[in-house]
Amino acid sequence: MIDDFYNIEPYQLNKEEKSELLTKELVELTRLHQSCCPEYARFLKAVGYEEDKVKTPADIPFFPVRLFKDVDLLSIPREEVFKTMTSSGTTGQRVSKIFVDKETAMIQQKVLIKILSDYWGKKRLPMLVIDSKETVRNRTQFTARGAAIMGLQIVARDIVYALNDDMSLNVEAVKGFLDKYSGQRFIIFGFTFIVWQHFYQSVKSFDDSPFTGYDFSEAFLMTGGGWKKLVSESISQDEFKRRMNETFGIKHFLDHYAMVEQTGCIYAECECGHLHASNYSDVFIRDANDFSVKGIGEKGIIQTVSILPHSYPGHSLLTEDEGMILGEDDCPCGRKGKYIQILGRMKSAELRGCSDTYADKMKRS
After folding, report:
1. Region 306-331: what's the mean pLDDT?
2. Is residue 363's pLDDT more than 70?
3. What is d(CA 118, CA 277) in angstroms, rounded to the nearest whole number?
4. What stretch of H or E contains 194?
5. Closest listed residue to residue 352, CA positions, set 90, 29, 51, 129
6. Residue 265: closest CA among 100, 115, 75
7. Comparing C-alpha atoms, which of 354, 285, 352 is closest to residue 322?
8. Is the model's pLDDT at 364 over the cut of 60?
9. Residue 60 backbone dihedrals phi, psi, to 5 degrees
10. Residues with Cβ < 8 Å from 110, sequence gap 6 or more?
11. Would you say 53 and 59 are in contact if contact means Cβ atoms under 8 Å apart?
12. What span, in angstroms and rounded, lies between the C-alpha atoms of 47 and 24?
């Protein structure tokens, strides 16, 4: 049924239309994983799952995301694993392992293209990656950071890495990129703390910026995660954007919320600063005491559903993040669906975001 979603724009469906399509697809996925993943079948039996009682996406049982750290969960034979992705983690932490076959990888790529095209257009754009090439060297096993970069390579062209393997700024590589694309539309991508520490701070360390005279006004700065470390340094999202605009002249920002356990289904930031759920995913806020669904504007634990995970049971997950739904079908940007605010990690949860774990490693070294 996923083909039904490909034929419509990613933020086209209203609440009722989306709920109907998502419910049908999620029921089918639950049935698939129940029959192919013994551990997931036992989980459904333990929670008393009854398919005929599912009326909305919120009725699909949610799987605690932390279980991916403890158990290898696959709905495919191991010989069909195309790549293995791992979550970010600080030294000594267990990491989630996500097993992806070629079909699931293809679905993830198609959806990511559909979502991002809604923000910066359908043309493949040049991309300046604020990271080192070392992050993506192992093509069969990726960290969340490497998986994100590789995922974006399908929507980009002429990719240049801005950092050397030691994470120092490669000024000449960036200049070479800007010589070709200054004043044009291009993508700058990096995890928030890495952009801050190794791009912004490095440029500020020069007496005169090495990029003076280059035009960043049409660039899209796409970031994700890492706000905890910046907020601890009294740098809010608004302040981050102000500094990037002041230093580089960047005007277009595209933050996003995502996790390796549901790769491809990103919650991207619109022009109004809201993170949007697309047709391919949805979000519910659960009460920390009884897991009931909270209303708009109420804080709680984030549950995400996605129609993309076909090779592992990751289609309905209870995250370790807190947030709230700000509205649905009424964002001033015109996109339908829920738009959300991420409030941060739950107090008892491990630090695991790509930027935050990287910042923690830096602090330890």
Report:
1. 96
2. no
3. 13
4. helix 192-194
5. 90
6. 115
7. 285
8. no
9. -70, 125
10. 6
11. yes
12. 20
Taking the C-alpha atoms of residue 341 and residue 325, their distance in angstroms, rounded to an integer, is 6
Look up tokens 């679905």; give the residue.
107
How is residue 181 written in tokens? 């694309």
Contact at 8 Å (CB) between 72 and 79? Answer: no
CA distance 216 to 23: 42
Residue type, 78: R
Single-letter code of the amino acid located at 89: G
**Model-level pTM?**
0.87
Tokens of 337: 């669906």
Place of tokens 């370790």: 320
What average pLDDT is seen over the chain?
89
Pull the structure tokens for residue 281: 């995913």
C-alpha distance from residue 84 to each of 64, 78, 261, 358 (Å): 20, 11, 11, 20
d(CA 312, CA 76): 7
What is the C-alpha to C-alpha distance for residues 135 and 112, in angstroms, rounded to an integer? 20
DSSP letter, residue 293: B
- Cα separation, 345 vs 123, in Å, equals 35
